[in-house]
């Protein structure tokens, strides 16, 4: 496994820049309707196995040497027993809702949690690491688990299952598992737009192809290890992330509209990604590779927010909502009185309510998996 002992100077400069606003902490609560599933439905998914970044990391970063953690309040504010698990959210992630909907488990744990029992391992875990990406530079900047390391942990996971189930049962179990891959935002926001290294060697279009090439290599690696049901999440409208508006808008305090030129990058990337995933499915025997569209789901929530019951779309609930994330969103930070009114919980990550709406909008994808 890769060492996590050092941070790049670019990362230090970026983090130092973000150290700005702290103020008193307050509590809030939100209630979501439970995820309903059909008890007569045949369970065709044996487990859920997740890879990627903070959008799907339930706490792996708690166990590695990185500053990109969220195992402290106000994170977890609306999670069961108000526990800050390491999810970059006030509550559950979309993958928790997916797992519950499929009838696999209620919440997906972090693979690196040393307290996981055998049953937790068998029904699925997340290998994701907040701050990671498909570009090898990205996890180097943030000093987190890169995608190849996540794949190595999956191989280790398979060996653990084989020791409990036997090789034949383990392979069948993996074949029937759902694999979710969600990353890419950090590659563009951090490694391309904030840190200038990649911009010196790649045009934006070439960088999109570079990121997709690395993603394809990872999917091929999963397929070689037995993955057959794979969902790949596209990029969100990155020009609407509060931190992007803050850093790149010329009038961030007075005009917090989405920055279209950044979201256009995501739109083009998603178009290319869908084409490549279609080609991959044809070339990888027995695979079902599905694209999950979070762009349009989140875009609709932001631009028709009152329809979904949101009041604030351009700043996070934590602190000023302009820059705070990870350790900048901490027990001393101000927290909005109603998390359900905010699309974002911190300056990057959606609130639990937003994740729930995104999950609901993509239910047809999960139903198609059940029918496989």
From TrEMBL:
<keyword id="KW-0732">Signal</keyword>
<protein>
    <submittedName>
        <fullName>GDSL esterase/lipase At5g45960-like isoform X1</fullName>
    </submittedName>
</protein>
<dbReference type="Pfam" id="PF00657">
    <property type="entry name" value="Lipase_GDSL"/>
</dbReference>
<dbReference type="InterPro" id="IPR001087">
    <property type="entry name" value="GDSL"/>
</dbReference>
<dbReference type="InterPro" id="IPR035669">
    <property type="entry name" value="SGNH_plant_lipase-like"/>
</dbReference>
<dbReference type="InterPro" id="IPR050592">
    <property type="entry name" value="GDSL_lipolytic_enzyme"/>
</dbReference>
<feature type="signal peptide">
    <location>
        <begin position="1"/>
        <end position="30"/>
    </location>
</feature>
<dbReference type="InterPro" id="IPR036514">
    <property type="entry name" value="SGNH_hydro_sf"/>
</dbReference>
<comment type="similarity">
    <text>Belongs to the 'GDSL' lipolytic enzyme family.</text>
</comment>
């Amino acid at each position: 496994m890769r060492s996590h002992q050092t941070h790049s100077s670019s990362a230090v400069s970026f983090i130092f820049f973000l150290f700005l606003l702290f103020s008193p902490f307050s509590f809030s609560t939100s209630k979501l309707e439970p995820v309903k599933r059909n008890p007569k439905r045949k369970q065709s998914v044996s487990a859920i196995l997740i890879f990627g970044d903070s959008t799907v990391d339930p706490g792996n970063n708690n166990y590695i040497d990185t500053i990109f953690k969220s195992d402290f309040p106000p994170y977890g504010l609306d999670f069961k027993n108000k526990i800050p698990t390491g999810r970059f959210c006030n509550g559950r992630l979309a993958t928790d809702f997916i797992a519950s909907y499929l009838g696999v488990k209620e919440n997906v744990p972090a693979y690196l949690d040393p307290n996981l029992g055998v049953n937790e391992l068998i029904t699925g875990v997340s290998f994701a690491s907040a701050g990671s990406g498909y570009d090898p530079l990205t996890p180097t900047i943030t000093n987190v688990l890169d995608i190849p390391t996540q794949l190595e942990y999956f191989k280790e996971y398979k060996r653990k299952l084989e020791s409990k189930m036997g090789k034949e049962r383990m392979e069948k179990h993996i074949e029937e598992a759902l694999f979710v891959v969600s990353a890419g935002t950090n590659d563009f926001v951090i490694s391309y737009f904030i840190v200038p290294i990649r911009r010196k060697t790649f045009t934006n279009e070439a960088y999109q192809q570079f990121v997709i090439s690395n993603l394809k290599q990872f999917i091929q690696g999963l397929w070689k290890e037995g993955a057959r049901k794979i969902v790949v999440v596209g990029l969100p409208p990155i020009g609407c992330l509060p931190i992007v508006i803050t850093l790149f808008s010329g009038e961030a305090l007075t005009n917090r509209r989405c920055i279209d030129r950044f979201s256009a990058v995501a739109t083009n990337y998603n178009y290319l990604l869908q084409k490549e995933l279609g080609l991959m499915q044809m070339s990888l025997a027995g695979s079902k590779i599905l694209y999950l569209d979070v762009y349009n789901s989140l875009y609709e929530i932001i631009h028709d927010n009152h329809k979904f019951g949101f009041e604030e779309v351009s700043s996070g609930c934590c602190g000023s909502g302009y820059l705070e994330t990870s350790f900048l969103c901490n027990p001393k930070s101000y927290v909005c009185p109603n998390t359900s009114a905010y699309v974002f919980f911190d300056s990057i990550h959606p609130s639990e309510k937003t994740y729930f709406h995104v999950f609901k909008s993509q239910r047809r994808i999960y139903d198609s998996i059940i029918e496989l």
